[in-house]
Write a structure and sequence with these properties.
- The chain is α+β, with helices and mostly antiparallel strands.
- It contains 4 helices and 5 strands, in the order αβαββαββα.
- Strands 2-3-1-5-4 form a 5-stranded antiparallel β-sheet.
- The protein starts with 10 loop residues before the first helix and ends in a 10-residue tail after the last helix.
C-alpha cells in the first residue's frame, strides 16, 4: 500500500487549468490549448544602492526577500566599476529571486489578493508596462505591503521590481492573461 499523498495545487493554478485557460483560448481565438499564455516565472529584484557605503544592508535585503518569497535569494554583484557611484566591479549591490512552478503561482495569488491592495494611495498599475513579448514589470516602493514582513524587524524600507514572465506572443495576450485573474490595471478614462 502506498502512503504518498498528493500535494494540493495552488488555488490560482487550479483556476487557470479549469476556467481561465478555456476562456483565454476562446477570447484570443487560439486553435491549440498549448498556445494559451501561461505563467513561466516571476522574478523579484531588490536593488540596494547604499550597499556601496554600508555592505551590511545586503543582509537585510536578503532576509526580507527570503521571508517574502520563501526562497533563498541570490546576491547580485556589479558587472563594471563606476567611479561616480563609488562602485567597484564585483561589489554586492542587490538581491533577486526567481520563482517557478507552484511557488510562482502562490506568489502571484498573494500578490493579487493581499499585497497589491495594501499599497498606499493605490490607483491601479500601469497597463503600458509590458515589454513587447507579454511580460509585465512593475515596481513597489516598500516591502511592507507583504504581510509576512515584520514591521519591527526591518532595518530599512526598500523597494523592489517584480517581473511576471508569461509565455505570451505579444502584449495583448499577456494583458488578457493578467486581466483574467483580476490584475488591477488603471482604467483609462475616455
Amino acid at each position: 500500500m502506498s502512503t504518498t499523498t498528493a500535494t494540493a495545487r495552488p488555488r490560482l493554478k487550479e483556476r487557470y487549468l479549469h476556467e481561465v485557460r478555456a476562456g483565454l483560448q476562446a477570447e484570443l481565438g487560439l486553435g491549440n490549448v498549448m498556445e494559451v499564455p501561461r505563467l513561466d516565472k516571476i522574478v523579484v529584484n531588490m536593488g540596494v544602492g547604499k550597499a556601496t557605503q554600508q555592505p551590511s544592508l545586503i543582509e537585510g535585503a536578503v532576509r526580507d526577500l527570503e521571508v517574502i518569497t520563501g526562497q533563498k535569494p541570490v546576491v547580485t554583484r556589479a558587472r563594471q566599476s563606476i567611479a561616480a557611484f563609488k562602485l567597484r566591479e564585483g561589489m554586492p549591490i542587490g538581491a533577486k529571486v526567481t520563482l517557478r512552478g507552484d511557488r510562482a503561482w502562490e506568489f502571484l495569488d498573494r500578490l493579487i489578493s493581499v499585497a497589491i491592495p495594501r499599497i498606499r494611495d493605490f490607483r491601479g498599475l500601469s497597463p503600458s508596462s509590458f515589454d513587447g513579448r507579454g511580460n509585465y514589470t512593475f515596481g513597489v516602493t516598500e516591502q511592507l505591503i507583504f504581510p509576512e514582513v515584520d514591521y519591527d524587524r526591518i532595518d530599512n524600507i526598500r523597494g523592489m521590481d517584480i517581473t511576471i514572465c508569461i509565455s505570451a506572443q505579444n502584449d495583448e495576450e499577456g494583458r488578457a492573461f493578467l486581466v483574467a485573474f483580476g490584475f488591477p490595471f488603471k482604467q483609462e478614462i475616455v
